[in-house]
Write a structure and sequence with these properties.
184 residues; mainly beta; 4-stranded antiparallel β-sheet; 1 helix; globular
């Protein structure tokens, strides 16, 4: 029951984050007038602190509750120049990771912050080196904590086939100058 209540609460936050309510509505009733963010992903760590990824591929952060998200990072090359969707992972209230394909469709870019977005590190993976004929398909990130994570690369399907390569890191991508190593 508690998980169901939390899921409902998160769904309400997703639809109201970044929205303003009219002031002239009777007490206890709130009407949404304008939303500045449409969210495709949200991670809250307590009532006030959390990360989100907007539909416009902006990384958002809040310390004042889900109705007060602020843009921390805009993914470059968004819109029609973006060859694939942006993936994000928010393992804790300090750490965020994003993965996306470069506009020139040559590199898979992984960006990370460990200080709530004050500074960002960027790693570029030439995905054609992962396999023959790889293209800018999709990338998915997931982290079990701030250091242990996975990156799934998927090529665009062609003739019923799709290349999938799972990469992992145990130290946030810091070892030996490589962000990820292939999972055997």
């Amino acid at each position: 029951m508690r998980k169901k209540g939390f899921a409902i609460l998160c769904a309400v936050f997703i639809f109201t984050a970044g929205c303003s309510a009219r002031e002239d509505v009777p007490a206890g009733i709130s009407r949404v007038e304008e939303c500045s963010f449409s969210l495709k992903q949200i991670s809250l760590f307590d009532e006030k602190t959390g990360w989100a990824l907007s539909s416009e591929n902006q990384v958002l952060f809040t310390e004042d509750g889900p109705e007060s998200f602020s843009v921390i990072r805009e993914i470059p090359g968004t819109g029609s120049q973006m060859p694939g969707p942006v993936s994000a992972a928010f393992p804790d209230e300090h750490t965020a990771y994003t993965a996306y394909f470069s506009p020139d469709q040559v590199h898979l870019i992984v960006e990370s912050t460990a200080d709530r977005g004050a500074s960002w590190q960027q790693t570029s993976i030439e995905y054609s080196s992962l396999c023959d004929g790889c293209d800018a398909g999709k990338a998915y990130l997931d982290f079990t904590d701030s250091r242990k994570g996975y990156l799934l690369y998927c090529s665009t399907p062609a003739a019923g086939k799709m290349t999938k390569i799972l990469l992992r890191t145990a130290d946030g991508g810091k070892s030996e100058g490589q962000l990820y190593t292939a999972v055997p």
